[in-house]
Amino acid sequence: MKRLFLIATLFFISFSSHASSVTIQSTTSTRDSGLYEYLLPYYPDFNKINIKVIAVGTGQAIMNAKNCDGNILIVHDKEREIKFITDGHGSDRHNLMYNDFIIIGPSTDEADISSSRSVQEAFSRIYKKKHKFVSRADSSGTHSSEIAIWNQLKLDPSTYTGKWYLESGQGMGPSLNIAISLDAYILSDRSTWLRFKNKQTHKIVYENSSELRNDYGMILVNHKKCKNLDYDSSLKLYQWLASDDAAAIIRNYRVSNSHVFYID
Amino acid sequence: MYVNVVLSFLVELVLQSLANIFELNNSFKDVVILSLYVSVIATIISSVISIYLTSYMAIKNFFGKDAITLIFNSLMSLPPVVVGLILYITFSSSGVLGFMDLLYSPNIMIIAQFIIVTPIIISLSLKCLNDRYSLLSDYLFSLNTSENKIRRTLVYESRYDLLIIVITGMSRALSEVGAVIIVGGNIDNLTRVMTTSIVLETSRGELSLALSLGISLIVIAVTMNLLISYIKNKLL
Description:
The structure holds two protein chains of two kinds. By secondary structure, chain A is α/β, with parallel strands linked by helices.
């Protein structure tokens, strides 16, 4: 029995590597857009360090970074990003890039969203029509933006939860799958939608990039709070991602011939 | 009419998946290898420990045996997500075992699957060895040998049933997704296994690719079972 434990212990020791590694805690939308696979190989030290990308909702990404399980945080919820820094978990923040949110709906567009003049009007039409609407409801950045619009309208759709207001509690992709099979409307970020393959007959019914701007922020996790993190490697990658070189690559990234992310 | 549309959609999906299987690239191979590596190691470690322990438990009646059996039987329904969550809290950098630096590595996926599989193997092999022991106890005592010899004979006589139990455990490990996606993080080239890539491709709306991964998982399971039954017939 003792021998067995010894073998097991040796096994785990032999496999735990100590090469320097940087973990990026990211939102699912940037991962699902395919940006990291495109961008990170351009990093000069790409082959020297181990870059791990963990893609979860903004809420979970922030939680993981608070637990010191990430060197860099890439999310899209400015309020919570600033709170993260004022709470002392992050040491620096950079406006990485932006794109926009869009409303996806069935091609028949029964609630007549495409003729609405503002996103508020679009949302109130869905509310009045009681047309099926899928909400992420997973405390992601997209979810916060959706809630902000309902709040501006002083409407509370959550009283209709399970009737026409459907809270999926899942990521962007799974929620899009639900919306498509239920002929429902949904608020999505443009990058996920561009890359999404199971579109069927759904289409963009409302877009206005200045009104529905979706900013992605990048935060360097505070190494003074998280002593386990390799500060030099994280800072180097952070500075490269914030550099003009990286910006040019991000600007150039295209999915099915359209640009996905913008940088001012 | 509606059924027709659904059927043609399904047929199209399956055809596309079959086409995908034959064109899957290198990264797919790595994903399959990692899947097998994690699940096989977890099952082997778990099987050795579980069968070793249950061989002791089967031939003895001791205080609390029923309680232990009950506990392991209940632990069989432990949801993998909960296992993942508990391991995340424990092995997170701010957790008690954070210093081990295991989070987001294949090793912690092995630990997770070990925890999921062990109650299954313990419960089933305890039942199997208990039953076999009550059948064989007269014969075993007539041999008049040491307790160690009795345990070894008991396990040897139950080898076919135990093999099926080990396969059951392995299937559980291979098909599990809730725990490995939390502790492994589904990192490309490092901790991405078949089930987590199915989740990923589904979330990207690549349903046919996701389905082809699912079909490959079944093909692998069938191949593995054929291989094991071949070994069983030849060697055991």
